[in-house]
Amino acid sequence: MIKKLTALLMALCLLMGVSSALAEKLTVTAWDANFNGNALKAAYEDYKANVDPDFELEINIVSASGDVEQAITTAGASYDYSNLSDIVLFQDHFIQSFVMDYPDVWMDLEDAGINWDDFGAEKLSYSTVDGVHYGVPVDNGTAIMAYRVDLLEQCGYTIADMTGITWDKFLEIGKEVYAKTGKALLSMDGNGNDLPYMMLQCEGKSQFKDGKPYITENEDLVKIITLICDMAKEHVLILANDWTGYTNETIMQDQVAGVFNGNWIIPTMSQVTDNAGKWEITSAPTLTGAEGYAANGGSSLYITANCKNPELAKKFLAYTFGGSTQTYDNALRTGGVIGCSISAAKSDVYTEGVPFFNGQAVYSKIVEMGASVPIVEQNDYHYTCRTAISNAIVNIINGADVMEALTNAENELKFAMGL
Amino acid sequence: MQKQKRLGLLAKQKAAGWGFLTPASLLIFVMSFYPMVQAFITSFKTGSAARLQWASPITYNYTRMFQDTVFKTAMGNTFLYLIIQVPIMLILAILLAQLLNNRDLKFRGLFRTMIFLPCATALVSYALIFKTLFAREGLINSMLMGLGIIKENVDWLGQSTTAKAVIIIALLWRWTGYNMVFFLAGLQNIEYSVYEASTIDGANGWQTFWSITVPLLRPVIVMTGIMSINGTLQLFDESVNLTAGGPSNSTITMSHYIYNNAFVGKANFGYTSALAFVVFILVAVLAVINLKVGDTRD
Predict the structure, then answer these.
(1) Mean pLDDT score across all residues of chain A
(2) In the list A75, A160, A331, A395, which could disulfide-bond A400, CB 3.0-4.6 Å?
C-alpha cells in the first residue's frame, strides 16, 4: 500500500514537474538569426538569469520577415491559430491591418505593467490600435542618412554641410559626387520604394488623410515624387529592380556614397569592410531645409491567441524589452539591434563610438533622432499604397506625366480600399 | 449455372475497378472539388479575411473587376505571353521532335536528354537563375559587352519590353523540351512505312511534314495546346521570382495578381476568389475552343 502510494506520489511529482516545465516555456518566431534572433536570445538569457531559472524560450527563425506575416495571414484567415508561436515578431506597418482583419489573434498588453512613456511616441503609434497597446517595441526603425565622408571630401563637402539641407541642394551635391566619383548619393528598391514615405514623414505628413489616400492633392508629396524622378534621371539615385538588387548590388557592391533607410540597414552596409571608418550619419534633408527625421520598418513583439501562458509571456516581455538594460545592451552587442527604450539607451554600450562610422556614437544618436520623428497618419493599406506609388515613379521616369501617373496610383489605391 | 459464374466474375471486376478508383476520386474530391465550391462561395463575399460577409449586391466582386486597371494589365500581359510564347514553343517543339526522330542521327539520346533537361529544374530556381543572368551586372550583359554588341549594361528586367522578352525567353527554354517529348512519343506511333511510301511518291521533306506528320500528330498537338494554354494562363513563378511583376506591373500575370490580392499587403479573399474563377472560366473556354478546332470527327 505504501509502495503504491509513494509510486503515485512520485508519478504526481513527475507530472507536476513536467507540467511546470511546460508552463515556463514560451515559443517565439523571428526571421534573422544574426539580428533579431540574437536580440531574443539576449532577452531569454537575461530573464533566465535574473528572474526565473526554469524559464525556457524556443526561438524559431524563418527565412524572411514576409514568412511571419504570411503565417499570420494564413492562420488568421483559417481561424486555426495552432501553428502560431506564443509570441511573434513582425514589421510595424502590418499590425494596424492585422488587428483590423484578425482581431481574435492578438492579446492586448494593457495589464502587462509596461512603462509606455519610456518609448518614443512615434514608435508606439504603430502598435497602438484605438488606444490599446498590442506590441512591445524591439528594433528601432529610425532612419539614418549615412554619407561616405571620404567621397564628400573629394567634392569639398563635410558631413556638417549635408546636415539641414534642402533636397534641391542634395540633388546639386549629388550631381557633383556622381561627376567626380562615379557613385550615386542614394539608392532604393524601386519596386517597394520607401523613399516617398520617409521623405514625406520628414515633412510631418502622410500619404493618407482621415483614412483616405492623400496623393495628388498633397503638394509636398508631388514635389517629393518629382524630386525622386529627377534624382534618378541625374544618376544621383539608383532605383534597383528589387530588394536584393538594392542591398546586394547598390550597397554591397559599393555603388553608392549615401544610404537613407531604417537603421537596420547598417548590417548590410557593414558587409563592405573596405569602407569601414568612412561613413558618418546625420539627419535627412527636407523640402524646407530643416533637419528631417523619419522611421521605417522597425518591428515589435506581439502575443498571439495561441499562447497557453499569456501571463508568463507578458511578464517576460515587460521585464526584458520593457526596459532591461542587460537585454538591450546584449541585443546591440550581439545582434546590432538598436532598441527603442529611452532609458536603456543611456548605457555605455549605446554611447560608445563605432569604428565603422568613424568613431561616431551612432547608437545613442539614432535613439535621440528617434525621439524627434514626427507621428504621421498610419493606414492598413500602407503596402498597397507603396506599390502604387513605386509604380508611378517608374512610369514617370520612363516618360509619363507626373500628375497623370499619380492620379492613376491614387485611383488604384482607392480601388483596392473600396472607396 | 455457367451464366451465374460469369456474372460473378463481372461483378468482381467491377468491384475491383471501383476499388482502384475510389481513393483517387476521394482525394480529388476533397483536395480539388470541395475547395473549388468553397472558393465559389467565398467569391460572393467581401470584407477582411476573418470577417467575411455576403456582398451586396451579391455580384459585387465580379462587377468590381471591370474597374480594376491592374487586373486588366495582368490579363493583357498573360495573353501577350500566350499569343507569342505558345505558338513559338509548339512549333519549335515539333521541329525538334522531327529532327530528333531521324533514325540516322547520331547521339540522338544525348540530344533528347539535353533538350528535355530544363524541365528537370524547379520553377523557382530556373527563374532565379534567369534573373541573375539578366541582371544589370549579369552574364548576358558581360557577354554582349565583350562581343561589342552593346556599349553599356542593359537593364533587362528594368524596362517593360525587355522584361517581357526575358520572361518569354525563359518560358521557351523551360517548356520547349517538355512539349517535345510528347511530340516524340506521337511521332513514334507513326508507321515508318508511311514515310517510305511518301518518299517513293516523290514528296519532299516539307510536304511529308505538312501532309503526314502534322495531321497524324493532331491529337498530340491539341493536347499540348490545351496544356500550354492552361499553364500560361496560370503563369505564376516566373512573374513572381524573375521580375516580381515589375517594372510597374508590366510583367505581372493574372495568377500573380491574384496571389498579391490574397497574401501581399491587405488580404481580400472574396475578390481574390472571384478573380480566380474568372481565370478558371477563361481556361475552360479556351480548352473547349481548342478541342472543337482539333476535333477530327464530322
Answers:
(1) 88
(2) A395
Which of A96, A243, A253, A391 is most worth mutating to test chain B (most B CB atoms within 10 A of its CB)? A391
The domain defined by B68-294 carries CATH number 1.10.3720.10:
yes
Burial of A29 (0-12, 13-18, 19+ CB in 10 A): buried
- Statement: residue A285 has pLDDT above 90: yes
| A396 — pLDDT class (breaks 50, 70, 90) | very high
ipTM confidence? 0.71
pTM of the model: 0.79
| Cα–Cα dist B261/B279, whole Å | 14
The domain ranges of chain A are: 2-141+297-346, 143-294+376-417
The secondary structure element, H or E, covering residue B11 is helix B2-28
Q: Which CATH architecture has domain A143-294+376-417?
A: 3-Layer(aba) Sandwich (3.40)
d(CA B159, CA B154): 9
Give the DSSP letter of residue B213.
I
Please check whether residue A182 touches B, CB under 8 A. Answer: no
Residue B3 above 60 pLDDT?
Answer: no
Q: Which helix (H) or strand (E) holds A410?
A: helix A402-417
Hey, what's the cell of A181? 566619383
Q: Is the peptide bond before B57 cis (omega within 30 degrees of 0)?
A: yes
Q: Do A391 and B135 touch (CB under 8 A)?
A: no
Nearest to A70 among B50, B137, B263 (CB): B263
Q: What is the pLDDT of residue A176?
A: 93
Question: What CATH fold (topology level) applies to the domain A2-141+297-346?
Answer: D-Maltodextrin-Binding Protein; domain 2 (3.40.190)
Q: Is the pLDDT of residue B298 over 50?
A: no
Q: How far apart are CA A50 and CA B162, in angstroms?
A: 60
The pLDDT tens digits for B163-208 are: 999 999 999 999 999 999 999 999 888 888 888 888 888 888 888 8
**Residue B7: CA atoms inside 13 Å, Cβ hemisphere, count?**
4
The residue type at A26: L
How far CA A233 is from CA of A116, A176, B163, in Å, comes to 44, 14, 20
